[in-house]
Amino acid sequence: MDWFSYINGELMAERLSVSAIAEQFDTPLYLYSKAGLQAGLEAYQQPLKHYPHLICYAVKANSNLAVLNVLAKLGAGFDIVSVGELERVLAAGGDPARVVFSGVGKQMHEIKRGLEVGIRCFNVESETELERIQVCAEQMGKKAPISLRVNPDVDAQTHPYISTGLKENKFGIDIIEAEAVYKKALTMANIHIIGVGCHIGSQLTTREPFIDALDRLLALTDNLKALGITLEHVDIGGGLGVRYHTETPPSPESYLSAVIEKLKGRDLTLIIEPGRSIAAPAGLLLTRVELIKKNDHKAFAVVDAGMNDQLRPSMYGAWHDITAVSLNGSESAPVVYDVVGPICETGDFLGKERSLQIKEGDLLALRCVGAYGFVMSSNYNTRNRAAEVMVDGEQVYEVRRRETIAEQLAPESLLPTS
């Protein structure tokens, strides 16, 4: 992550001082590197440059318009799970013909909007959804391009909350039932079958589950071809992990080389849906130490960011490296702290048992938070959501201004007086 490195003991974002950025925009603050986003996408583009493909960035990972715009300009497609994400992609200059629409609960108005703008396909996750898409497409006089998202019953060996490819998970159509659903789709006048896909989980750190799932998809593809159903693409989803702590995930190149080997001799476009592995390393969360609190058992660094800003530690027990923004001027010995926020919940922590040389007023940086950071933030305890900025070389741009209390209160109203 050389876009965030120390020079003379001061953390830099590309060529700008992180301390100076925090002074300009205050904290808590999400800070993204444009170079980091570019590097994340290019890590997928390079291994696939000689194979037909579409890289659909998973918008749920980080949906800031500036982030989407950077990726769209570099040729990315997008994986969406709501009409709101579709509108974000369109507002950011994304091409709807490079959009795949996933998600288990697509509503009729969302399907209609997808058909209106001409998305590449719907990733169908149930037989009921297939019927719903047929009805909507018939009403609009259109043909709806679809790909079945099958559930291959593959153990992704990840946190149970982000495992999506087992039979007990809510996602996808059981692979055993998929052929019957494809046959039914073939009888529907307004359905155009173009692909098959799966997504088995997030933060995967080995490539074996991906390859296992792909083998099952390709076996299904062969069976469908024997039935007269020839597919245009295979979508292997996303989920490649990143290094937060001690993980050693494979590189996109290592992972994709194995995928391409499996696809040799097949006339199939490859679609992939990475999110975390593109965006996570490109982001920091900056927070300031409000006070140091100690008792006989613990030392706490109470900071101005909380679980409403960064939910992953509280929700998943997730680890993010926490470092001082400045390594200069601290003469105290390291102390082991729980880094906690101001939210009235015991689960409000950003990191536990971290050895830090800090004092009140110091800036801290949470690393690898470009994905599933701001997008999961909330107004819990009536706290304003953070600002977001993006660094591009020697320039920094505010890409979301800090929320205000007035904006939080604006949609609400009192009961009329009786």
Number of strands: 21
* pLDDT averaged residue by residue: 93
Q: State the shape.
A: globular
CATH topology of the largest domain: TIM Barrel
CATH 2nd-level architecture of the largest domain: Alpha-Beta Barrel
- Tell me the distance between the termini: 61 Å
The value of Rg in angstroms is 23 Å
Q: What is the number of independent domains?
A: 2
> Could you name the CATH class of the largest domain?
Alpha Beta
Main beta-sheet annotation? 9 strands, mixed
Low-confidence stretches: 158-166
Count of DSSP H/I helices: 12
CATH superfamily of the largest domain: Alanine racemase
Helix residue percentage: 25-40%
Question: Which structural class fits the helix and strand makeup?
Answer: alpha/beta
Concise account of the structure shown:
With 418 residues, this protein is α/β, with parallel strands linked by helices.
Short key terms for the protein model shown above:
alpha/beta, 8-stranded parallel β-barrel, 21 strands, 9-stranded mixed beta sheet, Lyase, Ornithine Decarboxylase, Chain A, domain 1, globular, 2 domains, 418 residues, 28% helix, TIM Barrel
Question: How would you characterize this protein structure?
Answer:
With 418 residues, the protein is α/β, with parallel strands linked by helices. The protein folds into two domains: 4-31 and 280-409, Lyase, Ornithine Decarboxylase, Chain A, domain 1 (Beta Barrel), CATH 2.40.37.10; 103-272, Alanine racemase (TIM Barrel, Alpha-Beta Barrel), CATH 3.20.20. Helix content is 28%, strand content 26%. The chain contains twelve helices and 21 strands. It has helices spanning 18-25, 34-45, 65-73, 83-91, 108-117, 127-140, 178-186, 208-226, 252-263, 276-279, 312-316, 405-409, and strands at residues 4-7, 10-13, 16-17, 29-33, 53-58, 77-80, 99-101, 121-124, 144-151, 173-174, 191-197, 233-235, 269-272, 283-294, 299-303, 322-324, 335-340, 349-356, 363-367, 387-392, 395-400. The strands form three sheets. Strands 4, 14, 15, 16, 17, 18, 19, 20 and 21 form a nine-stranded mixed beta sheet that branches. Strands 5-6-7-8-9-11-12-13 form an eight-stranded parallel barrel, surrounded by six helices. Strand 14 and strand 15 form a beta hairpin. Helix 5 (108-117) crosses helix 6 (127-140) and helix 8 runs parallel beside helix 9. The protein is globular and about 75 Å long. Mean pLDDT is 93; it is low at 158-166.
